[in-house]
Design brief:
The chain is an alpha/beta fold. It has a domain of 173 residues: Aminopeptidase, CATH 3.40.630.40. The chain contains 6 helices and 8 strands, in the order αβββαβαββαββαα. Helix 2 crosses helix 6 and helix 4 runs antiparallel to helix 6. The longest helix is centred in the C-terminal third of the chain and has 21 residues.
Length: 250
């Protein structure tokens, strides 16, 4: 076999190993320095360190109220908390609000707006709904490079919450705002509006400020330290982008 054919064969093998579409572990992840500042389709690498921009996404908005319980609307609390988070991060890192008013933005549009930007992470703020007994914050991630940030956020918001009962804590879940952006991205549910006691807390501006401060501290820890102290990275999972037609929980 000629040198040219050998080179082509080797390239084909490398491409095949990196482009698998199954749910296996995929290629190994280099431990690296954590300074992953370029956008990347899969995010099968350590979390970022030294990033310059945080996109803060207030969930729902406009015609989409989100959860509505105990006299509170998720879209209102999410926007208020996003603005509090922006203030907490002021002067320490560049921040961009996905929406700054009561505006509806499609989830696919949000994912597209966050993508293609180097040195950037996305944090989406939500409030939750379930049975009346369930309470406590939850943090969702999918990409490997989002694991450290999700771990830091969940630790911090759980430390502010006075009690948790039956919630899911930190969860790896393929959502349009955890899988589809090509930057590290997490979605945090501050609390359950369907739980009367927690709804009362979430309706208190001082509590929302404490939660925003907890998320801000996690973001700045990740910026300074990368994944250090957040445990082993999860295995890569190859899965298609999330779509509106996906079955719940997929």
């Amino acid at each position: 076999m000629t040198l040219r054919l050998l080179t082509a064969a080797a390239a084909a093998l490398v491409f095949a190993s990196c482009a698998g579409s199954g749910s296996g572990s995929g290629p190994s992840i280099s431990s690296g320095s954590g300074n992953n500042l370029s956008h990347d389709q899969w995010g099968h690498r350590p979390g970022p360190k030294g990033f310059s921009t945080v996109i803060i996404d207030a969930g729902h908005g406009g015609k989409d109220s989100g959860a509505v319980h105990n006299g509170l609307r998720e879209k209102d609390l999410a926007l208020d908390t996003a603005k509090r988070l922006q203030r907490q991060l002021g002067g320490k890192v560049r921040t961009v609000l996905m929406r700054s008013s009561d505006e509806f933005i499609d989830l696919d549009v949000r994912a597209a707006r966050a993508s293609g930007k180097d040195g950037t992470i996305l944090v989406s703020i939500h409030y939750n709904s379930s049975g009346s007994a369930v309470r406590g914050p939850e943090t969702y991630y999918w990409r490997v490079d989002s694991h450290g940030l999700a771990t830091r956020i969940q630790r911090n918001v759980a430390s502010v919450s006075p009690a948790e009962s039956g919630n899911r804590g930190m969860v790896r879940r393929r959502l349009r705002l955890t899988r589809n952006p090509d930057v590290p991205c997490v979605l945090v549910e501050i609390g359950y509006l369907s739980n009367a006691s927690e709804a009362k807390l979430c309706g208190d501006p001082a509590y929302r400020d404490r939660m925003a401060a907890a998320v801000a501290h996690a973001i700045l820890d990740q910026q300074a330290n990368g994944d250090a102290g957040t445990g082993p990275l999860p295995k890569p999972i190859f899965a298609p982008p999330s779509r509106p037609t996906d079955a719940p929980g997929s």
